[in-house]
Specification:
The chain is mostly helical. The protein has 2 helices and no strands. The protein has a domain of about 40 residues. The chain is elongated, with a radius of gyration of 16 Å. The relative contact order is 0.10.
Length: about 60
């Protein structure tokens, strides 16, 4: 991450990284629990697969440094 950001934006980058970790630690279980409650366990855990696919697609757009 230090190679992707300029020295002036390092604090912002690591802050965003920390914030996104906290949000996903809350949002992931909430989504799985809600979908499991409303539909079934298969649908609930299917959302995990969708997040992996979305993360993979986002990571393919990041430049190699």
């Amino acid at each position: 991450m230090t190679k992707l950001l300029s020295k002036t934006d390092l604090g912002k980058g690591f802050g965003l990284f920390s914030f996104s970790g906290r949000v996903t630690a809350f949002a992931g279980p909430l989504m799985v629990g809600t979908l499991t409650y409303l539909y079934s366990q298969r649908i609930g855990f299917l959302s995990v697969s969708l997040f992996f696919i979305l993360g993979f697609l986002l990571m393919t757009s990041v430049k190699n440094v």
